[in-house]
Write a structure and sequence with these properties.
By secondary structure, this protein is an alpha/beta fold. Among the domains are: 83 residues, Rossmann fold (3-Layer(aba) Sandwich); 92 residues, 4-hydroxy-3-methylbut-2-enyl diphosphate reductase, catalytic domain (Cobalt-precorrin-4 Transmethylase, domain 1); 60 residues, Beta Barrel (OB fold (Dihydrolipoamide Acetyltransferase, E2P)); 61 residues, Nucleic acid-binding proteins (OB fold (Dihydrolipoamide Acetyltransferase, E2P), Beta Barrel), CATH 2.40.50.140; 74 residues, Beta Barrel (OB fold (Dihydrolipoamide Acetyltransferase, E2P)); 77 residues, Beta Barrel (OB fold (Dihydrolipoamide Acetyltransferase, E2P)). Strands 15-16-17-19-18 form a five-stranded mixed beta barrel. A five-stranded antiparallel sheet has the order 22-21-20-23-24. The chain has a five-stranded mixed β-barrel with strand order 25-26-27-29-28. Helix 4 runs parallel beside helix 5. The longest helix is centred in the middle third of the chain and has 51 residues.
């Protein structure tokens, strides 16, 4: 846009200014595991004055955070051998078991800050090795997290960085799979699909952190919507590098920067819309620095607009002063001189009035005792309580015990726009107000309910912040990066604190009332930051504990489908999710869970298993549906002709679906009365056919079918005739061979009296 600036002397200038939009990802910055580790280290330093605190390698992959921790007294070492005595904090990536043993042997105190998700990967990897699975670890070979997982396999694990490396492996029958917590979920699925057909059994543990998956998906979607993508985080951070890779794959120009100093405006100067995300090891202050620098362009426009506004105000003020000066000169010129006699008379009248008032006060002191809200006690800015005596379209009249009723103009009733004062207050209602002026030009006291409510709101906000209390507030509008709420003052909810997961459309929350906790207060800057996510997480944790305590195998429960994946569906049971495997969804064969369920759908499921220690729940859906085998066995019998669809052709025959979830086998010998080389000579997939039931075994859930039995009898007779003819032909051929023998002897002559012996 073009901004025109008018200068006071009539000169003007213009500047072409870009309208810049900056969109920040909701999931950006410290993840749970990183924040937890930093808090643990800081607590260790503050609580131990006599012992040094060490970390084995950088606590997280961010040099700025590591440097800050070193300044606070945290010592960075490369090996346990470098520590003689003190406290060793195990970093988020975890370590090999032998490192812990060496530290314990040296008498070093250990505080474990390993990310819980990484610790799960350790447990699962060890479990696979202990159960004789060929254990494959999908991750970066040189990453400390992967080295730690490898150590928990007693160095029997195999590390791969892509599915192509599987071709170089000699896979065993039983294979187990775990992944680095920051790996791409899509790439992990590629590895699973590649291994699955090559082994008899594949046991997979999904060790990828949910936050990582959400962060990567959000970054990908954001990159598609902007002109340029900035990814903030350490250059040595694997998850940050992966974020940059994912964004770059959308063909949006992507720049991975570690600090604000690396921001190159020349490369992004032509962008109107810039997206920003950050790795899990990136602190908030680095993100804020980048945002502040990017906001300079916007501030420049605002400053120039403000300059124009100030110029206008100065000019208007100069004109007003000039007019007042001219009026004053004119008034002085027209003023009449007061006679000395009139002046003396006036003075005498004033003295008489003062003496009269003094005598009256002395004679009747009770008449001038002031009430709490009297003029002697009231002053500008004071907060008082009054009673509403009248409400009209322009405002509200309030009795505060003063000589006249105070008036609240409509614009002073509430910090939000008021169309009708009657919607806010009623007659005879007691309200608190602040005095703006005791008497205006017309002699009226002017009051403000808005300012009194504002003070009360701040008191409530600070109290809620200090006591960790819950506030309720209505969402008034959506803004960039979050939501605005009314808590008596303007409150802000960052997008990352609206819900537990990623929110695609924040506009859905407008006009909704949310439960919130105050997470940041700056009274001097009128800044209030709130979180709905914090309450939801607390409620979820309570529900999770309650659900695990009450859930038992065999229970039928209700839940909500939160996510569909190729191998099943995740169901929220109230604070915790269970897995409904694709094989437990239907009695029939399905290719993908979306054939049965939709995300967000409420569903009733059966609990098949509960593992409280690992917080894993297995669910079933088909168990709540009628068993089609029982129904089929009741309605059908051997010898019955039934219709169905050919679903699959194999070497030994064809499968035909005869009811939902039930398939029967037509063996190749039952396809036709003629000789059949391959089943596709007779049937094809998807074809509707009739078949005869030749056996039913409900216990083994097997059905034998025949097409041959339904062929016409003449075909059967014709086939028998052909078989007989073939037999006779073979016999005649044999006789001819006998007659053609060189000696001319018969078979009996050749074999002697063997037939006679058989007869005997």
């Amino acid at each position: 846009m073009t901004l025109l600036v008018i200068v006071g002397n009539g000169l003007f200038c213009w500047k072409e200014v870009k309208v810049l939009e900056i969109i920040t990802a909701n999931e950006a910055g410290f993840c749970f595991g990183v924040k937890r580790a930093i808090d643990i280290v800081k607590d260790a330093v503050s609580e131990n004055d006599t012992k040094d605190v060490y970390t084995l390698g950088p606590l997280i992959h961010n040099p700025q955070v590591v440097e800050d921790l070193e300044e606070k007294g945290v010592n960075l070492v490369d090996s346990v051998d470098d520590i003689e005595d003190g406290i060793l904090v195990i970093r988020t990536h975890g370590v090999e078991p032998n490192v812990l043993k060496r530290a314990e042997k040296k008498g070093i105190d250990i505080i474990d800050a390993t990310c819980p998700f990484v610790k799960n990967a350790h447990i699962y990897a060890k479990e696979l090795v202990d159960n004789n699975y060929q254990t494959i670890i999908f991750g970066d070979k040189n990453h400390p997290e992967v080295k730690g997982i490898y150590g928990h396999t007693d160095n029997f694990g195999i590390i791969i960085e892509s599915y192509e490396e599987i071709n170089d492996l000699k896979l065993k029958d039983n294979v187990g799979l775990v992944a680095q917590t920051t790996q791409s979920y899509e790439e992990y699925m590629e590895v699973i699909k590649y291994i699955l057909p090559k082994v008899k059994e594949l046991k997979v543990f999904n060790t990828i952190c949910n936050t990582t998956g959400n962060r990567q998906e959000e970054a990908r979607e954001l990159a598609k919507k902007v002109d340029v993508m900035l990814v903030v985080g350490g250059h040595n951070s694997a998850n940050t590098r992966r974020l940059a890779k994912i964004c770059a794959e959308t063909n949006t120009p992507t720049f991975h920067i570690e600090t604000v100093d690396e921001l190159n405006w020349d490369k992004i100067s032509n962008a109107n819309k810039i997206g920003l995300t950050a790795g899990a090891s990136t602190p908030d202050w680095i993100i804020k620095e980048v945002l502040e620098i990017m906001s300079e362009e916007k501030k420049e426009v605002e400053n120039m607009e403000e300059e124009v506004k100030e110029q206008d105000e100065v000019k208007a003020n100069e004109e007003e002063v000039q007019e007042e000066s001219e009026e004053m000169v004119e008034e002085v010129a027209n003023e009449k001189v007061v006679d000395e006699e009139d002046e003396e008379a006036t003075n005498e009248e004033v003295v008489d009035e003062v003496e009269e008032e003094t005598e009256k006060e002395d004679s009747d002191p009770e008449e001038f005792n002031y009430s709490d809200n009297d003029i002697a006690d009231l002053k500008k800015g004071q907060k008082v309580t009054g009673t509403v005596v009248e409400v009209n379209d322009d405002g509200v009249y309030v009795d505060v015990g003063y000589k006249t009723e105070g008036f609240i103009p409509k614009e002073e009733l509430n910090h939000r726009k008021v169309d009708d004062p009657r919607e806010l207050v009623e007659e005879d209602e007691e309200i608190e107000v602040i005095i703006l002026t005791l008497e205006n030009e017309e002699g009226n006291m002017i009051l403000s309910k808005k300012k009194a409510d504002y003070e009360k709101a701040w008191e409530r906000i600070i109290e809620a912040y200090e006591n960790d209390e819950v506030l309720e507030a209505e969402v008034t509008k959506e803004v960039k990066g979050g939501l605005v709420v009314d808590v008596g003052v303007r409150g802000f909810i960052p997008a990352s604190h609206v819900a537990v997961g990623y929110v695609e459309d924040l506009g859905d929350y407008v006009n909704e009332t949310l439960k919130l906790k105050v997470i940041e207060v700056e009274r001097d800057k009128n800044n209030v930051v709130l979180s709905a996510k914090k309450i939801l997480e607390e409620e979820r944790a309570e529900k999770k504990e309650e659900t695990l305590e009450n859930l038992e195998e065999g229970d039928t429960v209700e839940g909500v489908v939160t996510k569909l994946v190729d191998f099943g569906a995740f169901i929220d049971l109230g604070g915790i999710e269970g897995l409904l495997h694709i094989s437990e969804m239907s009695w029939g064969r399905i290719d993908h869970p979306r054939e049965v369920l939709d995300e967000g759908e409420e569903v009733e499921v059966k609990v098949l298993g509960v593992n409280e220690e690992e917080e894993r729940i297995s669910l079933g859906l088909k168990q709540l549906l009628p068993d089609p085998w029982e129904e089929f066995a009741k309605k059908h019998y051997e010898g019955e002709t039934i219709e169905g669809k050919i679903t699959k052709i194999v070497d030994f025959g064809a499968f035909m679906e005869v009811a939902e979830g039930i398939e029967g086998l037509i063996h190749i010998s039952q396809l036709s009365q003629k000789h059949v080389e391959t089943p596709d000579e007779v049937v094809e997939e998807g074809e509707e056919r009739k078949a005869k039931i030749i056996n039913i075994d409900p216990d083994q859930r097997r059905i034998g079918l025949s097409l041959k039995e339904l062929e016409p009898k003449q075909e059967k007779q014709k086939q028998q005739s052909e078989n007989k003819s073939n037999s006779q032909s073979k016999s005649q051929s044999s006789e001819n061979k006998e007659q053609d023998t060189p000696s001319g002897a018969t078979i009996q002559e050749l074999v002697g009296d063997i037939f006679d012996k058989d007869e005997e």
